[in-house]
């Protein structure tokens, strides 16, 4: 695995906040986990991740392999998350 990558527990905004700093370039996340069971991110987690990325000028990247192509009712999950 490449260096500089940190994994945090899903839907754990406190741990995510502790992991992000001015040195963070991006947060990559799935809006809904598919491999460990169908586990959606909470709206609070998604919004908190967005706010943290904005505060630290980091990209928020959604991995939408599981949730894209209309599988959540919209073309992509981000479209219903604000």
Question: What features would you describe in this structure?
Answer:
29% of the residues lie in helices and 15% in strands. It is an alpha+beta fold and 82 residues long. The chain has a two-stranded parallel ribbon. A two-stranded antiparallel ribbon has the order 2-3. The chain starts with 12 loop residues before the first helix and ends with a helix.
Topology:
Layout lengths: L12 H7 L6 E4 L2 E2 L5 E2 L2 H13 L3 E4 L15 H4 L1
Parallel strand pairs: 1-4
Antiparallel strand pairs: 2-3
Q: How would you describe this structure in keywords?
A:
two-stranded parallel ribbon; 29% helix; single chain; 82 residues; alpha+beta; 15% strand
Major sheet: arrangement of strands: 1-4
pLDDT averaged over residues: 85
Structural class: alpha+beta
Order of helices and strands: HEEEHEH
- Main sheet? 2 strands, parallel
What oligomeric state is this?
A: single chain
Strand content: 5-15%
What is the terminal separation in angstroms? 32 Å
Structure at a glance:
This protein is an alpha+beta fold and 82 residues long.
């Amino acid at each position: 695995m490449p260096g500089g990558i940190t994994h945090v527990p899903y839907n754990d905004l406190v741990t995510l906040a502790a992991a992000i700093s001015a040195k963070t370039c991006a947060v990559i996340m799935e809006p809904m986990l598919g491999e460990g069971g169908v586990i959606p991110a909470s709206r609070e987690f998604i919004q908190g991740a967005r706010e943290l990325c904005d505060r630290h000028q980091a990209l928020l990247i959604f991995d939408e392999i599981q949730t894209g192509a209309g599988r959540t009712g919209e073309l992509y999950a981000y479209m219903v998350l604000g």
